[in-house]
Design a protein that fits this description.
- By secondary structure, this protein is α+β, with helices and mostly antiparallel strands.
- The protein has one domain.
- 31% of the residues lie in helices and 22% in strands.
- The protein contains three helices and seven strands.
- The strands form two sheets. The protein has a four-stranded antiparallel beta sheet. It has a three-stranded antiparallel beta sheet with strand order 4-7-6, with no helix packed on it.
- Helix 1 crosses helix 3 and helix 2 runs antiparallel to helix 3.
């Protein structure tokens, strides 16, 4: 059984966190991550000047403080996704800033917590990339 919740984790019970954009009825496999959604808004030219500048600053921060998993050079399944580890507190705080920008565009965001993100393909100090039929 895969232990997943969209509510705040109970201390010590969940190890991994993921932020997604979805409609209320979306299946977890049909959702996308908040960084992807913000990138799409930026590329479409939909952000205000202030939002654009904040987005650039957030993307720069993530590029400097979060290793980039080798998605393009790997043989991972297409459904492999990233999850934050407990050590990524500062990263999670930055994700909340991204969620605030997305909320201005009526994009519904959820936070997922799990002990078992699936088969782990990659791991660093702050994240894992895993695939699972449950996500």
């Amino acid at each position: 059984m895969n232990d997943v919740t969209a509510t705040p984790p109970r201390r010590g019970r969940f190890h991994y966190t993921r932020f997604i954009v979805c409609a209320a009825r979306d299946r977890l496999q049909e959702t996308s991550g908040v960084i992807t959604e913000l990138r799409l808004l930026k590329e479409a030219g939909n952000l205000t000047r202030d939002e654009y500048q904040r987005t650039e600053a957030l993307f720069e921060w993530f590029n400097e403080h979060l290793p980039c998993p080798p998605f393009s050079s790997s043989n991972w399944p297409r459904d492999a996704i990233s999850w934050f580890k407990p050590a990524a507190q500062e990263h999670v705080e930055k994700m909340e800033e991204i969620i605030a920008i997305l909320a201005a565009y009526d994009l519904s965001c959820r936070t997922l917590h799990t002990q078992d993100p699936g088969f782990i393909h990659y791991e660093d100090d702050f994240q894992v990339v895993a695939s699972s039929p449950h996500f």
